[in-house]
Amino acid sequence: MRLDEYEWSRNPRGLHNKAAPFRMDFERMIRARYGWCKMVCIGGEYMDDLPWMLSNGITPIIRVFRHNWGAAPATDELIGIWRAYANSGVKWFEFYNEPNLGNEWPNGTVQDYRNTDGIIAPLMENWLSWAEMMVSWGCYPAFPALSEATGDIVDVNGWLQAMLNYLAERQYDRFRAVMNNGLWVATHPYIYNHFYQEGEGPLKPRFSTNAQEGGWHFEYPYDPISQATHPGITTVSGTGDFPRGDPIGLCGVGEAFLIKAYELFGGGAIPVVGTEGGIYPVPQSPGEIHQIDDRYPAVGWQSHGEGTLAMFNWIADQAPPWMFGVALWKENDYYEGPGGHVPAVGLMETNLPRLKSVPPLEALGNVNPGALLAGPGPVQGTPDHHALLLAPDLNPDWFFNGAKSYYEKFRPQILTDVEYISHIPHQTSLAVTVLATPATQNYAKEQISQHWANVLIDLIIVETEADLAKVLAQRVKANSRLGK
Questions:
Q1: Facing residues of 95 across strands?
Q2: Domain assignment present for 380
Q3: Contact of 86 with 50, CB cutoff 8 Å
Q4: What pTM, to 2 d.p., does this model score?
Q5: Same domain, 332 and 438
Q6: Residue 446's pLDDT band (cuts 50, 70, 90)
Q7: Domain identity same for 342 and 413
Q8: pLDDT in tens, 46-69
Q9: Same domain, 278 and 404
């Protein structure tokens, strides 16, 4: 299955209901133009909401809540509830939730991910059976969301590694089949104040941030502030305080999962949706300020709003292709606080959402997530940069003899090493015209798309020098740098 084949709104904005069994407010959802709706339910209480959600471009995500469920298997009752929602048009489902926290288990205590037979085995075996059932219905099963933590036995990377190692060692083929038929990753990205906007100095103060202007950073822990204090830290590796890395960011746990899935299963292009999270805590009055990490600017009433809108814009325009959105935690925090609805709501109501362009990457295409933001960003309209690459078996003389007029008119950067692409700033975009013969037409995918998914590939396949000269001459005559 390809990344672009998942059915959803392409709108990263989302909202989480305030609790089961509270239904979502129709007017709120429509006015702020949400694209995701995360609903925790008890039973079928949201069935009547599905028609208006689906008809208004809102993609529902369903989790049926059961207290202290732990790793218990699906029951006939739960299966009946899921089936009813699936029959009504829901495709995105969750089962287990935050197994690295104690309150999700029957005895209310934190479980040890190093207990493979007692904890990890039943969790993964029961989850895998549920996921296969979802796939058989044509639905999308979520890999369980973890509470983002970096210490002791609640450590998110420890749990991820334990769960994926178990699947690789004992259920390799079954898990790969689920990966290739609708798997997605649920995360809980509470990003706190791990974001900022550049200003005339290093940072804009909170009272002057503007979502419509550039310079926003949501790539933690890869942003300059984080890297200055912990050089070289990633979501899965680091030194000193974070030997396992630091995934407490917007895309952090999603990337950590994808890196491990790439290493163990040859995967990489799996959707990630934050099913609860956002900039947290949510200020509830104009005087309320939060600064959990003093390396980053404090978050206030207005800057929380500007940052929330900028976060959704960043997901659409700059985030990795697999990052699909975030459901803000939660409806009452944004609409029913002592100060009324928070500024983020008004900003979403007055600004249209930016939709995300998703490339056709294969779920098992051996796509290495690599560094979070290495290389160029997505193409929006006309690419900022244009390069030309010759596949290995194409005679260089063909280009130099037949492409003089094309080169002189369009002046593409001639690539001799694809690693050049890594140095293109993520704030800009790139198209690469690849000249190849039929025998090497997959060269572009193998050398570029697997590493830099945002690059627009402009492929020219020819068998002779005369064919190449003809194609390029036609482009010059049509004043068309890239093929259509």
A1: none
A2: no
A3: no
A4: 0.85
A5: no
A6: confident
A7: no
A8: 999 999 999 999 999 999 999 999
A9: no
